[in-house]
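I am writing to request your help with a piece of structural work I have in hand. What I wish to show you is a protein chain and, alongside it, a tokenised description of its three-dimensional fold. Could you please explain, in whatever detail you think fit, how the structure tokens follow from the sequence? You will find the record immediately after this paragraph.
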Amino acid sequence: MSEPSPDVPAEAWSGVHRGPLREGEWVRLTDQKGRKHNFELIAGKRFFSNKGHLDHDELIGRDEGFTVTSSAGGQYLVFRPLLNEFVVSMPRGAAVVYPKDAAQIVALADIYPGARVVEAGAGSGALTCSLLRAVGPWGRVTSFELREEFAEVARRNVTQFFSAPEGGTHPAWDLRLGDLKDGLPALGAQVDRIILDMLDPWNCVDVVADALVPGGIVCAYVATTTQLSRIVETLRAHGGFTEPQPWESLVRDWHVEGLAVRPGHKMIGHTAFLVTARRMAPGEKPPRKTRRPAPGAYGPDYTGPRPADVPPPEQPDEA
């Protein structure tokens, strides 16, 4: 039998542990119907459900990945929660960025160890956890949040996931209460990535352009098509960014049982649109698009920002 793996070094700030479950950790119990229960292990306490109770002491000291039976015969699968499981079950103030979108942001906004990242707003801390894990303890995530109650929820959730000591938090995290438009210039230094999870990201494009290093990436997370259009056109009209790339991701599970292989009945459909663009060097502009806009795309009914090479619509002659 191989030797047990050592725990993940605390200085990695991964939010992950190896080895036996210990007091103070959170565990995730899954019953036979797939219902999930998350709680902190505390010696001497009991977990109660409609299937009876379980003593926390029965779980502490065991390697995760086992089945336990409650006092009324219910069976539960016991694991430590993964990050994607933690964020969909944690206490919420604002709505969370779902794992499918957080994964897209980390990958396509190219969040890397040591990166200097700005996030607006912090919400409930779901995306913050993914950003902090990606930048590691040597990077920096500065989160701006307008509402104090949301900031407090985010602080508790991030502290819980990374098992930060009482009164402390992740060493790479700087949570600030206030508006990005005011706070970003006050940072006094350029950053590598900016994530905009807010109602009006188009109003921040100028300060974002000033704060991003050449080659840096801005990523906007918006819910509606009108928001999508406004942020894309504003980035395009600014002239200091590459052509914005908008997209969304949809996730569908599958049912696989013998010959019965079909799409599942559950699907995570639209949650948000994502838009990314890269900052050009000062004074530089991207090449003009060779493909002409569709007829009527910027016609008289369009009232949003216009690219520099698109003339204003002709005004109808007055009778």
Summary: The first strand starts at residue 26 and ends at 30. DSSP finds seven helices and 15 strands in the chain.
